[in-house]
Amino acid sequence: MNTVITIGRQFGSAGREIGEKLAEYFGIKCYDKELLTRAAKESGFCEEMIQNHDERPTNSFLYNLVMDTYSFGYNASSFVDMPISHKVFLAQFDTIKKIASEGPCVIVGRCADYALADRKNVLNLFIYADEDSKVKRIMEKYSLTEQKARDMINKKDKQRQSYYNYYSTKKWGRADSYDLCINSSVLGVDGTVKLITQYIEDFEKKTN
Question: Which of 35, 150, 193, 204 gives a 20 to 30 Å CA spacing to 75?
């Protein structure tokens, strides 16, 4: 096993659970919130600050400045002036690259596919689901009314979309941004995992 799997996901689509089951099947690590803990340790930011900016869009349009800083190496003055949300994004970006260089793993969300765009051994997945099954899942998971669950799903997905579209050159949830997009409500969590494992195994054969 040599593949790094990144998973973009709609809120309520079971993307994280699918990622965990894939990691378990292949005997590799799955990074979701763990990535934040590690990014905090390695960057010196406190974990709370990293969590506060986690997959949330930034209000500042210093995007080009950030990407210039990233491409040409940090220089102290531009890094100091950079909004905290960008520093946190770069800390996560660095951590994602480090994690991928350590070996096969599953990374959930956080523009990981974009951070690893230059690597050949990466498979980028996107998990989505029907509205009704997402609502049902979120109602059960967080003990919410149907309306509250719908509102939460809309809010979370808007955040993820604007974060991804802001920091990445691709479009969140659009088929041509990923290698494989799957509706998890068709086969359920286990059926979706089974389908993806087959895809990964065939990808491994083709690339090794």
Answer: 35
In the structure, how many helices (H) and strands (E) does the chain have? 10, 5
Instruction: Find out whether 50 and 39 touch, Cβ atoms under 8 Å.
Output: yes
Q: State the Cα–Cα distance between residues 92 and 54, nearest whole angstrom.
A: 9
Domains of the chain, earliest start first: 4-201 (3.40.50.300)
Q: At residue 21, what is the residue type?
A: K
What integer pLDDT is reported at residue 25 of this predicted model?
97
DSSP 175: G
| Three-state secondary-structure class, residue 39 | helix
Say which residue the tokens 């340790």 belong to. 41
Q: What is the pLDDT of residue 208?
A: 72
Cβ neighbours, 10 Å, residue 145: 9
Place 45 in a pLDDT band, splitting at 50, 70 and 90.
confident
Question: DSSP per residue over 69-137, as a string?
Answer: HHHT---HHHHHHS-HHHHHHHHHHHHHHHHHHTS-EEEESTTHHHHTTT-SSEEEEEEE--HHHHHHH
CA distance 8 to 174: 11
Rounded to the nearest 5°, which phi and psi values hold at 178?
A: -135, 170
